[in-house]
Write a structure and sequence with these properties.
5% strand, 4-stranded mixed beta sheet, mainly alpha, 67% helix, elongated, single chain
Length: 428
Amino acid sequence: MHALAALVRKDLTLYFSNRRALMITLAAPILIAAFFGAVLGGAPKKPTRVPVAVVDLDQSPVSRGIVASMKDDSTFDLREIAEAEAVTQVRTGKLRAAIVLPAGFGNAAPRAMFRPGPKPEITVHLDPSQAMTLALVKGLLAEHVIQAVSRAAFGGGAAGTKALADSRSEVAKSANLADDDRRDLLALFDSFARLNARGTVERAGGKGGIGGFEMPFVTREHEVTAGDRRYNAYAHSFAGMGVQFVLFMGIELGVGVLLMRRLGIWRRLRAAPVSRRLLLGSRVASGTLIATLLMAAIYAAGIAAFDVRIDGSVAGFVGVMLAFALLASTFGLLIAAVGRTPEATRGLAILATLLLVMLGGAWVPTFVFPDWLQSATLVVPTRWAIDGLEAMTWRGQGFGAAIAPIGTMLAFSAAFGAIALWRFDWEE
């Protein structure tokens, strides 16, 4: 134990003696985490309005009603411009989408509500890099179109009255309808006609009359987080960048072992009464301590400057952090054992680390991955590290949620350490 303590103390002294390198090691993950946190949502703030253009080629009461309704929608940053300019702005990324209401839409849409066949077509020019915006635009557009078109069809205006009359005439002349169906449909149109006539009288007398269809519900968003706090994207970005840069530290640990071997330091150490396992074990122990201190410093910056909070189990958070620190340390030795030389190890380490951080969800949350990839990444140890850190921070879960991540990372650490001890060459 005295020899182990001396070796670990030597590694810690050497690592922390280079203050410039230490400051860079701490500053890089904090700055990049701050950037990703701001991009992915940042601190609680007002929701961003989606920049969308609308091109009204119809200029009918129906189309103008749609445009007016969309202007009042807080989701859209609506702009009325020409179609060519709208397409150009979508192409250059200034707009997410451009909606084109075709000529004749105000007449065709109310009639299309009552009969099958061709429908008026609304064109949506979409930025392909913003494919997720399409569902939002189509859903909200459907709401505004239904309100405007139903208001025209049932509100007693000229367009609605004509649409009902034309549809009634087609039903009366249709040879494909059963007599009972025809009779019920004609009665329905007659009821609509009486409602429209009554609504016209009521509006003339200062009463409201009937209008278009309205959505039969409203939504109230409630973010499910610990203590009903707003979701803070910095909690994810600090977990991801902490994991990434601590892995880089583990790589430097492994490369340092190879450099010590090249310089003959390992040969001199082996002349002392210490075993090979003790020599590698001391590097694992010192690397684990350094990784733990780095993670603690990174999270301290997140807590102090970016409102990151440990809303779950503190013991679970510490356990996940220690398990990942051990994982990063053994990962560095594994890369060194496989790479064999400092030059080869650096190239291999860059590839392996990038794969681990990408698949683990360090850059973007794993829920944006395809379903098959979300399942596949469960065999990636960094996925468990990030999930465990998030569970203990903004998700506010108890210690039980930390058991699986801790156990999985300890199992990977044992495997990495065993392979490193088996494959490590003591002579270059």
